[in-house]
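Regression test case RT-17, inverse folding.

Input:
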């Protein structure tokens, strides 16, 4: 698709526990971008390796997964889910988009004829890049 109009796009990150390989946190950030989908993807991908440091974090406490501990017992673990994100992504995406859209600022628009304001909105199906982060041996998050 060739869409050169200004559009709100997102970077979305899932933080993965290096030992269990379970996702325990999400983060997201919005951007106002123009260009084709390929151009937007290149920009979002270039920012995905660093902007998670300043992105808004989201708890995953309402999600649960079943794990098998070292003794072979199954138990429920709150705030985690597997890297098979298809089940959880729509719900998380809806929460993130709704929350971030509320934070988009109202912008003034002034001409000689009028004064008005506008506020950008996150599209129903926004362009986004999903990146998984995992902490290294020193505890620093890095894209995986």
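Golden output:
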């Amino acid at each position: 698709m060739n869409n050169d109009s200004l559009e709100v796009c997102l970077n979305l990150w899932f933080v993965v526990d290096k030992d269990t390989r379970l996702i325990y946190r999400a983060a997201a950030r919005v951007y106002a971008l123009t260009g084709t989908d390929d151009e937007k993807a290149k920009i979002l991908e270039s920012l995905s390796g660093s902007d998670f440091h300043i992105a808004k974090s989201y708890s995953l406490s309402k999600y649960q997964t079943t794990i098998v501990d070292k003794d072979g017992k199954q138990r429920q673990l709150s705030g985690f889910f597997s890297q098979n994100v298809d089940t959880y992504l729509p719900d998380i995406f809806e929460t993130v988009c709704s929350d971030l859209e509320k934070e988009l600022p109202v912008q003034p628009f002034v001409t000689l004829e009028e004064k008005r304001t506008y506020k950008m909105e996150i599209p129903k199906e926004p362009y986004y890049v999903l990146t998984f982060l995992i902490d290294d041996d020193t505890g620093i998050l890095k894209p995986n």
